[in-house]
Design a protein that fits this description.
Elements lengths: L4 E2 L2 E2 H21 L3 H14 L5 H23 L5 H7 L10 H15 L9 H17 L1 H9 L1
Antiparallel strand pairs: 1-2
């Protein structure tokens, strides 16, 4: 398959440039507080260049912040936010979750969003949110049982 050229750039170089621009746009959208567009741009970067493995870490950090914003909404509406805490740790089925599962998901998520492993501007805040969600779920047995009944 022949590659086309635009001003000296081949198609693969152009898609790499587009992926990098999408990542930069995602970071700027996050800084502006537009989490949905940040997530959308990060996924666009992956579409342009699936080999960008660190983009998955950026997406995880943005999603953690998105779940945290949902948690604050739940608290304002005086609703049970324990399901959101499970979402922060990327636990889908909160009905049969034990302490070991929470710890395992915490370690996996913390590695994804840890500021030393993730260059995103969202990483530090996401790491704190993940740690807080884990501590809350591990310390509050009542919340775990309430979420398990739903």
């Amino acid at each position: 398959m022949a590659e086309f050229r635009v001003r000296g750039f081949c198609q693969s170089q152009l898609t790499q440039i587009a992926a990098q621009k999408a990542i930069l746009a995602a970071e700027e959208y996050f800084k502006l507080g537009n989490l949905d567009m940040a997530i959308e741009q990060a996924f666009a970067a992956l579409d342009f260049n699936p080999k960008l493995t660190l983009v998955h870490n950026y997406i995880a950090a943005y999603l953690v912040h998105k779940f945290a914003s949902m948690q604050s909404l739940y608290k304002r509406k005086k609703r049970n936010d324990s399901e959101v805490l499970y979402s922060v740790l990327f636990i889908e089925d909160c009905c049969s979750v034990d302490e070991a599962t929470i710890r395992k998901h915490y370690k996996e998520t913390a590695l994804l969003v840890h500021p030393d492993k993730n260059d995103s501007v969202a990483a530090e805040g996401a790491f704190k949110i993940v740690r807080q969600a884990s501590e809350t779920l591990l310390s509050d047995e009542k919340k775990r049982r309430k979420a398990g009944r739903r």
